[in-house]
Design a protein that fits this description.
alpha+beta, 4 helices
Length: 112
Amino acid sequence: MNFRAPVAIAGLLILAGCASVKDVAKREPVFFGSTTRTAADYVQCVDSAWKGLDTQAIRQPIHNGYQLVVEGMAGVEVVLKAETWKGKTEAKMYTRVPRLSTALAEAANLCL
């Protein structure tokens, strides 16, 4: 029996499943909204709410705001981007598996 083929296929499946921030952010947002809060205040609120849901996120600066990135076993699972422009912050949340992000989207909505 040849064990090389199954090992090679398993390796390719693992690599194919790894998602980056760019990969996840190319998808349709599962949540979007706007607020008069600054991007920093909004992202801080969301990060605290997600910690209450036992979800750890990495806060990263982006142009005109911040993003929160949640990583999982297969790479990036969730990306929340918040950008402030002319006193208004636009927030968008993207996910690799939409059905698993309902609680996170609800928490992001409550922070608007």
